[in-house]
């Protein structure tokens, strides 16, 4: 499998998936495809018949991020409907193509270059992003048809389309509103209320909008206004110069938590992001092997320097 062909095909992904979060997904997808290609080359070209059946997994993600000082905002809706072979770990596929959350368990943190554990991608058969017909997002009296983006045929092991909103505007994706998403080609229709955006956030006693420095001689203490029970608040502390980050997940109703800072170096710059996450499971038509998740992820951010 020629490296030039891989590079050319993956370049199309980067050009088409233009938003910041989509670029992150494309890079994860690139790493997966390269590994998938080398694995596939060592496998039989015809999968055994018993491996052909699998399951359908739908993920619909509504993401919105705003700077705490009000200087910028962006949003994105994303929908993917995957047909995953029986012997392939579905959670690993979701994670590696950017549809997974990659979060630690509630009450714990990932520090430095740690990543959550996922199951192995055992035998490799066709993993397909299903065509779902018209994917319609309805919220606050408005309606948008999500745009399908075709993945390039880089290997014989992946195909199909991913559905995304057409721009990075945050205003069409409000917090505390009821969302309805339908995909007529798969018989999907799901409705659920989005959470409030995170607010009342302090870091080391300062309102988030006033935070510009993070001391690394001890944990960063956070507080926030409590939302609904069952929601999750997770904090990301990320260095822009290094591959270091600290990610911690908390039960929303706690209203407080601490983030480790020991993996950062003085003088590094980065971002502090506080997310409120709500997930809702739903059925995909009448398929007992199908699962669905509607996910809301609303964040506030501040640029910081580590001291």
Overall 3D shape: globular
Q: Helical stretch count? A: 3
Distance between the termini: 47 Å
Briefly note the structural class of the backbone: mainly beta
The whole-angstrom Rg is 20 Å
Sheet-strand content, in percent, reads 35-45%
Low-confidence stretches: 1-52, 118-124
Q: Let me know the number of strands.
A: 19
Largest sheet: 11 strands, mixed
Share of residues in helices? 10-25%
Task: Write the element-wise H/E pattern from the N-terminal end onward.
Answer: HHEEHEEEEEEEEEEEEEEEEE
Mean pLDDT: 80
Can you describe this structure?
- The structure is a single chain.
- The protein has 307 residues and is mainly beta.
- It has a domain at 3-104 and 116-195 and 282-296.
- The protein contains 3 helices and 19 strands.
- The strands form 3 sheets. Strands 1, 2, 3, 4, 7, 8, 13, 15, 16, 18 and 19 form an 11-stranded mixed beta sheet that branches.
- Helix 1 (3-16) packs antiparallel against helix 2 (20-41).
- It is globular and about 55 Å long.
- The relative contact order is 0.17.
- Mean pLDDT is 80; it is low at 1-52 and 118-124.
Brief descriptors of the model:
307 residues; 19 strands; mainly beta; 41% strand
Q: Care to give the gist of this entry?
A:
The chain is mainly β.
Fold topology:
Layout: H1 3-16, H2 20-41, E1 54-67, E2 73-85, H3 90-96, E3 109-112, E4 127-129, E5 135-139, E6 142-145, E7 147-150, E8 158-164, E9 178-183, E10 188-193, E11 202-203, E12 206-207, E13 213-214, E14 220-223, E15 232-239, E16 245-251, E17 256-259, E18 269-282, E19 290-306
Parallel strand pairs: 1-19, 4-8, 13-19
Antiparallel strand pairs: 1-2, 2-4, 2-8, 3-16, 5-6, 5-9, 7-8, 9-10, 11-12, 11-14, 14-17, 15-16, 15-18, 18-19
Helix pairs in contact: 1-2
């Amino acid at each position: 499998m020629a490296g030039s062909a891989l590079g050319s095909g993956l370049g199309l992904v980067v050009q088409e998936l233009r938003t910041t979060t989509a670029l992150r997904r494309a890079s994860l997808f690139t790493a997966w495809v390269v590994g998938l290609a080398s694995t596939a080359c060592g496998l039989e070209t015809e999968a055994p018949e018993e491996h052909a059946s699998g399951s359908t997994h739908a993920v619909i993600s509504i993401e919105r991020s705003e700077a705490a000082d009000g200087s910028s905002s962006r949003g994105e809706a994303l929908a993917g409907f995957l047909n995953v072979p029986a012997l392939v770990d579905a959670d690993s596929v979701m994670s590696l193509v950017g549809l997974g959350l990659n979060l630690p368990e509630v009450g714990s943190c990932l520090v430095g270059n740690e990543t959550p554990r996922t199951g192995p991608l055992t035998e490799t058969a066709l993993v397909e992003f299903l065509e779902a017909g018209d994917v319609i997002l309805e919220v606050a009296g408005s309606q948008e048809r999500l745009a399908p983006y075709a993945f390039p045929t880089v290997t014989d092991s992946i195909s199909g389309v991913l559905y995304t909103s057409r721009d990075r505007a945050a205003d069409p994706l409000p917090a505390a509103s009821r969302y309805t998403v339908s995909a007529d080609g798969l018989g999907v229709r799901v409705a659920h209320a989005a959470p409030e955006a995170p607010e009342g956030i302090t870091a080391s006693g300062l309102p988030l909008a006033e935070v510009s420095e993070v001391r690394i001689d001890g944990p960063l203490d956070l507080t926030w206004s409590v939302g609904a029970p069952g929601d999750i608040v997770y904090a990301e502390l990320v260095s822009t110069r290094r591959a270091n980050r600290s990610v911690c997940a908390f039960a929303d109703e706690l209203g407080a938590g601490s983030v480790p800072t020991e993996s950062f170096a003085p003088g590094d710059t980065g971002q502090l992001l506080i997310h409120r996450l709500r997930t809702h499971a739903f059925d995909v038509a009448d398929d007992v092997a199908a699962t669905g998740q509607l996910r809301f992820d609303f964040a506030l951010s501040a640029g910081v320097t580590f001291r």
